[in-house]
Amino acid sequence: MAAPALVGRDALIDEIVGWITRDRRAFALLRGPAGVGKTSLAAVVQERLDVEGVPTHRVRATESSRMVPFGALAPLLAGGPEPSSGWGHPAAVLTALIESVRGRFGDQLVLFVDDLPLLDAGSLTAVLQLGEHAGVQVVATARDEHGVPESFSSAASGATGRTWSVAPLDDAAIEEIAVGLLGSRLVPGSVERLCRAALGIPLVAIELVAEATRVGTVEPSPSDPGAVVLGDLPLSARLRDLVSVRIEHLDDAMRAATELVSAGRPLPISAVDPVVLERLEEAAVVDVADGTVELAHPLIGEAVRETTPTTRWARRMGEAAAIWAALPATPDTVLRTVVMRRAAGETVDEADLLIAAQRGLDLLDHRLVIELLTPLADDRHHEALVLRGTARSAIGDDAAAGDLRVAVDTAPDDAALARAAQRLALELGTRQNDAVAAAEAARKAFHLVDDEAPRQFLHAEVRKWELLSGEAVAGTAPSTDPAARLNECAVGAVVAAMSGQLDDADRLSAEGIPLARQLRDVLTYGEELLQLSRILAIGFRGDAQAMLRAVDEAREGSQVSGRGRDAEGLWAFLEASAHYSAGAFEAAETAAIAAIHGLVERDFIGLEPAARGVLAGTLARSGRSADAETEMAALPASARDDQRAALLVARAEAALAHADGRSAEAVDTLVVAARTAIAGGFGAMAAVTAHDAVRLGGASEVVDLLDEVATTADGEFFALLASHARGVAEADAAAIDVAARHFAELHLVGIAAEASDDLARVLRGARSPGAAEAERRAIMLRSMVPATDVVTLTQRELEVARAAAGRRRSREIAADLGLSVRTVDNHLRSVYRKLGIGGRDELDDALRDVGLSPDS
Predict the structure, then answer these.
(1) What are the tens digits of pLDDT across the range 184-240?
(2) pTM, to two decimals
(3) Staple partner for 460: which of 259, 291, 487, 518, CB 3.0–4.6 Å?
(4) What Å distances lie between residue 205 and 144, 175, 190, 477, 672, CA to CA?
(5) End-to-end CA distance of the chain
């Protein structure tokens, strides 16, 4: 792994090195907030230049060096000529410095200057003179909070210079830093907390993780083997020192205002004296925007809290609560007021406490919800039990089911009973992977309610869990109650997508998604469940690329709504499914691992066993049988009770059996699983599962089954699967060829390659022409999604082959790809040998046959 501060910086490093070696301009400036990695970045650039033989030198400006004329540049003067007028004359020292640099480095030096704004006046002038008149290239760093002298800023932004803003890292890069330091994955909740604290600054992330490790607040995750949980994130001595620079010199009024902002952050600007506010802003302690004042960095709040006496901090929290309470009441203002009043030791109204907890649940702050409601829930307060149980379920706390069962028993009316039972069924079906128990809990509640709307709501809930446990159920008339209708849409869309009624799945998803956004308190993850159905319907139409685009759109929408991390396991599962369908097993494996990681902590639909099934299948199909068997052994026994997981597990088991030479057993496994799934209402997934048997020599055993699904399901994809199976069973080359080409058009490259193999086999058996062409097509298709157990072109060979299209000469290809001519020719010879062709004319035809022509 790269040095932590440089994660995600490769492109920027290449750009800076290229600019220095190519453009040879005089001045470059790297700007960014403290700790963002400017110095580390400059150091790597210097190392790269040293390797390339470019003379470099580094100087560092500090507060102490600026007190001495030319202090930072003293190493460059050492051993050089004496100033003609003595060391007390700046002009003479400057002349001597330039002569010393020229004598030691000639006109090729790249001078790196850390913290340029801390240079004394003489050193700054010298740096400018070296760049303007001595042929030296100057690469300087500067913190955002330090003003860069106008003379250098102009030089670095004009015709002779370049300025780069070194931006904070994104959350993925911060997570990568933490994983590199810890040697383990972090659970999603810990990633969020670290990213909120670090704000993209690698130094902060490094120090927080290191200090948490030192004090022992890093613990193994109880629910995700191999992952760790970050507990408290205390400030390290280094971070405390960095923050103290901003707050240690505050006068009493500024300190009091900073404490108030730290307690109530953010606050309306009217809460702080304008004169004091201006001084705090100038000192980079606070930021003012959109009528509010906020700390310039979260760590300032941590440092202020650590250095404020407990009684005074409680008083500040009470003062901040009064400010928020005076604002118009919204769920957000109530939440903030409640949290601050509790911290101040004040009594909180029960109604406000419940509003605050519901808002905390909306914001996915589950641990806060548990903290707020524990006293009330322990007294068997129904609403508190529902909310605490929901929060506990979201973080995998085993106590969730107990809370929700008591909530069912204490429900004051039918509507409350239905809601509590729905949450209990979700806990049983998802966290405990027991769809049968979930269905039973929903049925029990259904028989206890009399009001029509709650009965309709619970009936839909029963249908959902009966479906997922493999028991097909009949539909009912639509409800007129919005909450019940939302549940009906969510359940109906899942039923429709799984059974292959894709038009109904589209319609119900479109109707339900707006309802889900309005009624999150009724079905917390209703929108995500409906998006799942919508995207599965796209996938069951056969277009893997369209499915991936839909996943990206849904992921982007959830990030905009602030629920991105909570749903990431779901989106990664769908992504893995699309890649698996396309035969892109490497990409499917990566996405499946990400899905499991996300679902272990936040699985609101019960997809973790299915995700593990996808991972086992991708490993088996990639020839990694031992790894696949290990993954299968880790599956809970209840995984086969969930029809989604059961089908994916069957596909993995069949792939393993086939790899072990037990093809007949593999086919039987697929047929039995598919038949069971069709009976349980999972016809669409059953067809995809059954089609695997074609590859294993069992086409004749699944033709009727695939025809059965195709006659009742929407879209042409299921008929295409059936047609391919029949073509193979009957050795119908024309039907197989049509299927292979349609699979390729749908971006199902892996299945298209298998169908091309089927075609070649049939043509060879009939001694018909075209077998070599079909084999060539299979190789080209597999090269687009490389596997380990068949002949393919390597990714470099495929790149060279595409570049060679249109009779381009090897020298041109070599220049474009940064290769030698000999390497290009060697790759082309390998391509011709693998494809069984004689030259570029046939190569052009082979590329066009799989949609890789130069103009595609």
Answers:
(1) 888 877 888 888 888 888 888 888 899 999 988 888 887 677 788 888 888 888 888
(2) 0.65
(3) 487
(4) 19, 9, 12, 55, 51
(5) 37
